[in-house]
Amino acid sequence: MWKKVVITVLGIAVLGVGTVYAEQSMQTVYHVQMDGREIGTVTEKAVVQDELEALVKQKEEQHEDWNLTVAEDITFKPERVFSVEADEGQVLERLEQDVSYAVEAVQVQVNGQSIAYLPEAGDVEEVMETLKAEYVNDEGGSEEEDVSAGETELENVYVNGVIDYAPVQAAPSSINTVEETVDRIQTGNLSEQVSLSSGEPLVDVIVTEQEREAEMIAHKVEVRNTDALYEGETEIHQEGQDGKRETLIQTVTENGETTEEEVLEEEVVEDPVTQVVLKGTKPSPSTGSGNFVWPAVGGVITSKQGERWGRYHKGIDIAGVSDLTIKAADHGKVTEAGYQESFGNKVVIDHGNGYETLYAHLSSIDVQVGDTVQQGEKIGDMGTTGHSTGVHLHFEVHKDGGLENPLSHVSQ
Ligand SMILES: [Zn+2]
């Protein structure tokens, strides 16, 4: 009894298997057609669809902003068959070889003429912005109403021409970049290879900008004569100062070329201050007073007049100063000013009253032969030119051709 039941059950099972086998032996295959042309047979549509998706994805990876589709029409024709003779491998190979792509793009038109294909509508916006930016000088600093000095502010920019776009499917090779599109609009050359056009821009970019320029106003110099000063002497009575003028200029440019320029405002923001110079008219005495002043700024006497190292030292040596200025001991006229071997740079002043003074070893000389100098006026800087062992002034006093002891005339 038990056994029988088991056999029955088995029998049903066997029957069932037989039925399934019969169903499967009658199968559906799909004839894959590319633009109506058969390229093979598959048992599942998904195999083809997955392959197409993979191919598109692979292609898209090379162009991040592209949205691609397969250009060909891929269709399936089902057929019920007993014996399956699918050739999936061949179908996939054909797809990979023969499929071409279309980009979901926008066609850019300028004044109704197609000039480029861009991947996205957003790129057209970028073309417009780039086109405008090419001709705008405003650095976009301040958003204030007023243009401050040295700044340029954009007042208006408009494109004289209609740029629009429409969605299309385009071949990948016809897709342009934003830069190419801008270039085509600017130059009027619609092909990179041949330039047949006159090079006229397809649209005009008209920019209105305001710039406030700051300009210096040079100060004047006024010279006033005064007998409070000796001839040749000057004194600044009032320091001069440059002024400042600001000008607001409005410029209109068309494709970068200035077509209009207008001064909107002009204002002196700082008046210049005239420099007033006093000029001495009092005749300068070239005759000495007979009284001498110390010819240096401080310092010490390092050598007096007299026998030294078997030779006669004709003057005194002054050294140890922090200010190197050498002064004329009295009014007079410069009779020598130049280099002489042992004295180095030397100045001799004739005081017009029989006295002459001599200054030697100067590092630089500020006077020339023939100059009238005043008592205490700077004639040069202390130095160590000529036969000298250190920075010092060698100072001699002569009267009527004979040597005087300087220390009888000057003291610190
Ligand atoms: Zn000396």
Automatic annotation (TrEMBL):
Keyword tags: Signal
UniProt KW Signal keyword: yes
InterPro entries: Cell_wall_metabolism_enzyme, Dup_hybrid_motif, G5_dom, M23ase_b-sheet_dom
Transmembrane segments: none
Signal peptide: none
Domain G5 as annotated: residue spans: 203-283
Name listed for the protein in its UniProt record: Peptidoglycan DD-metalloendopeptidase family protein
